[in-house]
Amino acid sequence: MERKVDTAQRAPGALGEFAASALTNGLGGMVQMATAWLEGASAISAEVSDFVGHRVRRDVAAQQALLSCRSLAEAEQVRAEFVRTAMRDYMDQTGKVVEMMGQVATDMATDQRQNRRATPL
């Protein structure tokens, strides 16, 4: 007499294998993506922090220059230079941060492609 194996009896083992396979194959890529994102976010944070320090130093220097002006024309010249420099600095910094964000996205996608394996689904 042939013995039938109840699929319900096999389910816990199959489910465990599925979960282990998902962790190994599916979530491994997610961990790599998260790592790339965290490293990128940390680099961007450091870059922005450095920029803020740079701008504070320039702002203080501009204030000192304004306080030493002897005429309205001289103050206007200092103000105009301050505005030009600030706009250039902020535009350059924005471009740098956008590039860094693009690199983070590329790194995340690259990590995902390199770590992709057959999913157990």
Automatic annotation (TrEMBL):
<dbReference type="InterPro" id="IPR018968">
    <property type="entry name" value="Phasin"/>
</dbReference>
<feature type="domain" description="Phasin">
    <location>
        <begin position="27"/>
        <end position="109"/>
    </location>
</feature>
<dbReference type="Pfam" id="PF09361">
    <property type="entry name" value="Phasin_2"/>
</dbReference>
<protein>
    <submittedName>
        <fullName>Phasin family protein</fullName>
    </submittedName>
</protein>
